[in-house]
């Protein structure tokens, strides 16, 4: 992938300015137990006053990632703040210093996940990876996935598949551009990432405008049998015994496959969506990138507020909210979990195993989009007027769809 190099600059910038998965949720059991056993109240982080039954839920609001820094300023310490969601204590981590302490120094303690009833129901008693308690099942299921699905070898072997899907995406946009039609990137991008993950994980995709929910229903039917490898050979990796005799049962297979969709589709398309939004809002950066690409072508629950940390003036100086990808050229910040001031993929033992896979999709897709098209907003809207509000969910997607008017500038095939 010759195109990747210049985009690394952009990728880092995009992650910081637009970032996605905001609240990394973990469980911390032993440390809080120890603390209460020793009655060490002096070390309890500051906490806003709470209501009976509700705790602090009434203060969390619609956008917790935005409310937490404000609450921390009012009631908490800058690093840590203790809230209560109902009766459940929730430790909010607000700075890179505290995130390092929790996710690196105390990684073993914080690697667990909260036992939430809804997730348990949806994910087969948490037999997946992302919601599994820290232990043997999580270790083995993650190892299996990393080895067979998300390894560099697998990523390389999926090269043609990615190229094909990116080609289809570009062609769809090209067809609209030819007739001057508006393109709703917020609708197109999730279909694209869905198709990529589907082909990667299941070996085929489901053509037509399949709504994600329908696809998942079909997926459930497909993987319902224990002999899944007999019907979908591409899934046989899930049933292969490991040297130490670990193998996933039927529910485990469904849960891990679901994880690939939950962890891999929305995150990747949301990242692309915000990247395009920021670029359209900042034509100077868009132009610079286009020039570059075109020239190149080739226990207690813990909530780490990755969104707030990525915008903390203590780490990022003045105007941390501004989209300035160039700042990463000087800062040389690692975004894969080593430097805690920027943790879009989390950090420590539970950090995202799909980083390379996600980046391989995002970088090449974005490079093709900005290389092959010039982009305008409909109705003569100026970039600076583009609404950048987010909504809440697993990923913080755009609240309003990203509607665009592309113009074709190149007829080259994706690279
Ligand atoms: C490119 C966009 C992506 C972003 C921004 C992202 C972000 C994250 C984050 C923040 C976490 C939680 C880390 C923590 O707790 O410290 C995570 C976990 C996870 N991600 Fe990703 N991810 C992306 C792509 C993917 C892809 C493509 C896959 C798989 C196909 C994937 C699969 C997973 C899984 C299975 C976990 C749970 C890991 C565990 O609990 O051990 N992600 N991701």
UniProtKB/TrEMBL annotation:
Keywords: Heme, Iron, Membrane, Metal-binding, Monooxygenase, Oxidoreductase, Transmembrane, Transmembrane helix. InterPro entries: Cyt_P450, Cyt_P450_CS, Cyt_P450_sf. One of its GO terms (molecular function) is monooxygenase activity. SUPFAM superfamilies: Cytochrome P450. PROSITE patterns: CYTOCHROME_P450. The chain crosses the membrane at residues 6-25. Belongs to the cytochrome P450 family. PANTHER family: CYTOCHROME P450 71A2-LIKE (PTHR47955:SF15), CYTOCHROME P450 FAMILY 71 PROTEIN (PTHR47955). This is Cytochrome P450. It comes from Linum tenue.
């Amino acid at each position: 992938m010759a195109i990747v190099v210049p985009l690394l600059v952009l990728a880092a910038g995009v992650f910081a300015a637009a970032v996605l998965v905001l609240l990394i949720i973990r469980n911390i059991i032993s440390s809080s137990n120890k603390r209460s056993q020793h009655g060490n109240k002096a070390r309890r982080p500051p906490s806003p006053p709470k209501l009976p039954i509700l705790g602090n839920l009434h203060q969390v609001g619609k956008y917790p990632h935005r409310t937490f820094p404000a609450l921390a300023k009012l009631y908490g310490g800058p690093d840590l703040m203790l809230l209560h969601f109902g009766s459940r204590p929730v430790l909010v981590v607000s700075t890179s210093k505290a995130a390092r302490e929790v996710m690196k120094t105390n990684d073993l303690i914080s690697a667990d996940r909260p036992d939430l009833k809804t997730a348990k129901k949806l994910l087969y008693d948490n037999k997946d990876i992302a919601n599994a308690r820290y232990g043997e099942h999580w270790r083995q299921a993650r190892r299996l996935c990393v080895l067979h699905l998300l390894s560099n070898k697998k990523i390389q072997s999926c090269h043609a598949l990615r190229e094909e899907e990116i080609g289809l995406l570009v062609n769809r946009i090209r067809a609209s551009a030819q007739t001057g039609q508006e393109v709703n990137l917020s609708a197109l991008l999730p279909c694209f990432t869905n198709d990529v993950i589907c082909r990667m994980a299941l070996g085929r995709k489901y053509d037509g405008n399949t709504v994600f929910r329908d696809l998942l229903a079909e997926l459930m039917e497909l993987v319902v049998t224990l002999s899944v490898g007999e019907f979908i050979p591409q899934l046989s990796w899930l049933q292969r015994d490991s040297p130490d005799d670990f193998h996933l049962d039927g529910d485990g297979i469904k849960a891990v496959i679901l994880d690939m969709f939950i962890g891999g589709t929305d995150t990747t398309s949301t990242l692309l969506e915000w990247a395009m939004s920021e670029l359209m809002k900042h034509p100077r950066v868009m132009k610079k990138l286009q020039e570059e690409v075109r020239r190149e072508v080739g226990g207690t629950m813990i909530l780490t507020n990755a969104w707030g940390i990525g915008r903390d003036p203590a780490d990022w100086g003045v105007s941390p909210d501004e989209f300035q990808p160039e700042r990463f050229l000087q800062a040389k910040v690692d975004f894969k979990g080593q430097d805690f001031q920027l943790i879009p993929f989390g950090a420590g033992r539970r950090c995202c195993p799909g980083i390379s896979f996600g980046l391989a999709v995002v970088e090449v897709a974005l490079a093709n989009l900005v290389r092959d098209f010039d982009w305008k907003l409909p109705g003569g809207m100026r970039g600076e007027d583009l609404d950048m509000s987010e909504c809440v969910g697993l990923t913080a997607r755009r609240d309003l769809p990203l509607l665009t008017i592309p113009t074709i500038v190149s007829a080259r095939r994706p690279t």
